Structures are given as structure tokens and as C-alpha cells.
Amino acid sequence: MQSNPKTFMAAQICHKGGKLEMKEVEWREPKRGEIIVKVMACGVSHSDSITQDQLLDGIKYPRTPGHEFVGQVCAMGEGEMKCKMGDMVGGSWHGGHCLTCEPCRAGDYACCTGQQYNGVTRDGGMAEYVCMRADACIMCPKGMDPAEMTALMFRGATIFNSLNSMCVKAGELVAVHGAGGLGKLACDMSRCMGFRTVLIGEGDKLQREMNLSRESFIDCTKMDVAKELMSMGGAKVILCCIAESKRLPSFVGGLCPNGQLCLTNISGEPYCEIPMIPLIMRRLAVCGQPAPTPLEVEQCLHFCKMTDMHVKVNKMALKDCNKAWECAMNPDEMKKPVLMMA
């Protein structure tokens, strides 16, 4: 029988605004409904700053961030039936639901009013081990790179879920407002789903890095985005993968009738002015996409495996967590920073 350690190392934020600090953490046995995962890889994301800046209620310090992790089950609480020892599982933003609120009773766990968040309201995966809710674990398909899977656990699955739930058909135009590796992932997913795809971004460097043709890229610093989109027939969906609320009003005019503007990221600016006339005259909609449920993440993983989709990652040691954090805070970074556990 495998023996578990008395202590393990974790990267923790110890106070609001603080940097990551390496700490020795005591092992605790999982309670009923919990499992412990020996972490193999944990992605570092810009959204980890929510924990650092205490942007949500329920964040207490010290806290181990990380809501994109993959590892193997090494301990289980009493009566656990979903997993078995040695299973490869993952964790995303969704850290568990209450089952008693109105959304939960309707099966809409993503909108649970009593939801827990991995790496935010409970400790996450920037550690050698993580204790998580069993109902929040993601069953990982075999044959995928754990480091690449971390990039799909949260932002990747949110993009997949957005495209999967929008009112858009194969052959119609999807415009992705994005940058870096996340923008590339969104474009790749959109094309694999059969949509005509154009990226809205900043600068010639981004266009070159993504190897995009002139017809597949709109430079929002030099071009009228709405005019360019309408010259292509109008976008059925504009998928916003980066938080720049100041640019969104100028995008709306590029939607075709019955088009949708989908927001997937939280901006530092909580409000955005959207012009009313095109919304009314073209029957447009503005919607948000919450973080995916474990089942939705599993669907995303299977889709990426089936389509042989890959994500560029930059593997780093846990001790280099602050260097990885700096990379993650750069929206133009093409490689996903991933902490690998020894």
C-alpha cells in the first residue's frame, strides 16, 4: 500500500497582493466526498490574480492558487465511488457545487450560488498534492500530455463551451478577440468546428506569430473592426477571450443580424457601454460564459484528442512559480506556463 507524506511543498499567497512563497504544508486525510491528487502538472493563468488580489468573496490566506491541474488519485475519502486509486484526473475552476440552490436543482452547476472555486476559495494545484471535491474532479482521457491538458482545463474549455453553445452554424463567421496562446487556441477550436474564423488582435507581430493571412486577421489598432467584419458578411459570433471592455462597443457594429457578442473573461473595468441601436435593429445579443463544469471540460478534452489539437507549453519547476506567474500575466505569451512536479 502506498504511504503518503506527512508534509509536502506548495506555492502559496500569504496576504493580499503578495507573491508566491514556497511553504511546507501538513498532509491531511480526505474527508467523505473528497480525494487527494498527486499533482503532475499545474497551469498558471492570468485568472490566478483573482486570488492574489482577493477579487472574490471567500478568499482567505494563506491560499494555494491553481485551477488548472492534472495528477493521479492517491487517497480517497470514505465511500468514494467516482474515482479509483491511480486514476488520472484534473481540476478546473469549478471546485464543487451545493446541490441545494435553484440552479443546482435545475442541473445548472456552473451557476451554483454556493459554488467553491479551486485555487480561490479552496486550495488549488500549485503544490505536490491537492485535496479536492470528488464531484468536481475531471476524468482525463488516456494518451494526452498532462501539461497540455492543463491549458484546456479552464480557459480552453470555456472557449470550447462558448463555441459549442452559441447559435452559429458551420461555414458562418466567428471573430475571436484574443492574443497569445489563448487567441491561437480559440482560433484553432473555431476552425475545427467548421466556422470561418478571423482573429481580432493588435499588431503585425501577432499576425506573424500565428502565421495568419491578411484575410484571417484584423488589426484593431489600425483598422475599423466593424467595417472589416461587415465586408465579410458580418460575424455571427464575436468571442472575447481577453478583458478589454474599452474596445467592445466598437465591435458590436460588426455583428450580422441575430449575432452574439460572447464575453469569457473578467475585465478590470466592471462596466462597458454597448450601443443600443444595433442591438435593437439587428436583434443582437450580449452574453457571458461562466467557467465550465467537470463534464464540459471532459467533453473539451475528448474533442481536442479526437482532432489532434495541441497547445504550446513552457514547462517549469514548482520552485520557479513566480517566473511562471510573470509569464502568465503577459497576454501576448504564446506558450502556456505549466509547473511540473518532480
Automatic annotation (TrEMBL):
Give the cofactors, semicolon-separated: Zn(2+)
* Keyword Metal-binding attached: yes
GO molecular function, a single term: metal ion binding
Q: Name one Pfam family in it.
A: ADH_N
Q: Which GO terms describe its cellular component?
A: cytoplasm
Sorted UniProt keywords:
Metal-binding, Oxidoreductase, Zinc
Outline the extent of the Alcohol dehydrogenase-like N-terminal domain. 32-141
Entries under SUPFAM superfamilies matching the protein: GroES-like (SSF50129), NAD(P)-binding Rossmann-fold domains (SSF51735)
Q: Which InterPro entries match?
A: ADH-like_N, GroES-like_sf, NAD(P)-bd_dom_sf
Q: Signal sequence: where?
A: none
Q: Which domain of life is it from?
A: Eukaryota
Q: Which family does it belong to?
A: Belongs to the zinc-containing alcohol dehydrogenase family.
Tell me the protein's name.
Chaperonin 10-like protein
Upper lineage: Eukaryota, Fungi, Dikarya, Basidiomycota, Pucciniomycotina
